[in-house]
Task: structure prediction
Amino acid sequence: MKIVYFFLFKLGFHHHNRAMADPKSAFLNGNTLNLIQAPVALGQDCEGVDEAPGILIANGLVQQVEALGWNVVKNSVIDSHHLRWNSPEANVPARQPGLNIKFPLELGEACRDLAVLSKQSHDEKAFTLTLGGDHSIAIGSIGGALLARPDLGVIWVDAHGDFNTPATSPSGHIHGMPLAFLAGLMKQYQLPSFDWLKNFLGPDQLVLIGIRSIDPEEKLLMKKWGVHVFSMTEIDRDGIGVIMEKAKDILFKSGNRPLHLSYDIDAIDPHFAPSTGTKVRGGLNYREAHYIAETLAETKQLVGMDLVEINPRLGYLDPALRSEKNLTVEIGLELVASALGKRIY
Ligand SMILES: [Mn+2]
Result:
């Protein structure tokens, strides 16, 4: 499979007139930020999630990031036209014979190429912002980050557990399996297209927040592996402020470490973020959604972020609205800003 990258290098000379913000992170090289667009949709079955990176950028993502004092040095796109539902290749039978998993070859190769970019970006100590695409792309962004930063801590914000394996998944969709890959639970299946995954997360490196929909056997896997889960129930009981303190206590137990935020937009209540493929009621409200990103930015340990599962074709009664004033695209842009240091006061 041929993957082509488009690198757009920008000169930073016009940035010196901007007030240099305070140090972004001890784990970063100043205010350097690399953007990776991962328009991948084959991890699930709704057309349109691959359109999100383009629409986020058309709605001012780069300008917004630069206004916060970041210097966007690289803007790379994984050319994954063959990974979209509207491509002819997507119409071939998806399921691997004898195994309940869809498009492992295509997604393994896409994530491998994304991992190369992610590792390189982390080697450069640039903040690495990856725009999905469905959540399968986190195998690449985090799998690559772990090659450069084996000690990475991950905050996974999601409505779902994303811990399924072929043995527990009702659908075979890889966007429900990225944490099983990153936790090393997929090694038993020996998928050659994922053999580049070398470093894995341990239970002390991962916190899940906002969860409210877990498949029954997936839940058993998660408990056995020992993942820290803060479901919507805990957020209701303790408030998001207490939950974020607990999450930091877990991740910083042995001292500071670089952090990665993997933000699935479906963690947010569909009332606020309707344009996504697997909606679940009872999610994060608008301020809770932001508070998570703001708190992590405040730690100064954040080195990367995924923003995934925005599907601009969904959630609107009037399709004419989908590419312009899309509420979910707007909230996605705002979450990136919060994670990159935007403050109310
Ligand atoms: Mn997810």
Q: What stands out?
A: DSSP finds ten helices and nine strands in the chain. The pocket of manganese (II) ion is lined by residues 135, 158, 160, 162, 264 (CB under 6 Å). Residues 1-21 have pLDDT under 50 and may be disordered. The two ends are 49 Å apart (CA to CA).
